[in-house]
Design goal:
18% of the residues lie in helices and 18% in strands. The protein has one helix and three strands. It has one helix at 45-60; strands at 33-36, 69-73, 81-87. The model has no long low-confidence stretch (mean pLDDT 84).
């Protein structure tokens, strides 16, 4: 059958080079970004801001000016956050 798709032989070797990631940063305000998978060691927004600035510099080599942040806390226990937040 000419329309039949036949899988290529898999010899276990991946010959493709990993693709470089590209990031599209907004060029106009507002610049609110969701931050997920927060460490539970982060207790307040100043720690969140510092962590975001550090990780962006480590990963992208760029300095960013983070104006502020918000952390989502549990309603039933406001001393524990939910593992995500937002930064501007």
């Amino acid at each position: 059958n000419p329309d039949e798709v036949v899988p290529a032989e898999d010899n276990g070797e991946n010959t493709e080079a990993p693709q470089e990631r590209s990031y599209d940063f907004p060029d106009r305000p507002p610049f609110t970004a969701f931050v997920g998978n927060l460490s539970f060691q982060i207790k307040d927004t100043s720690q969140l801001v510092e962590a975001v600035q550090n990780i962006v510099f480590e990963r992208l080599g760029e300095r960013v000016n983070v104006l502020g942040g918000r952390i989502a806390f549990h309603r039933a226990d406001p001393t524990k956050h939910r593992g995500f937040g937002y930064v501007e």
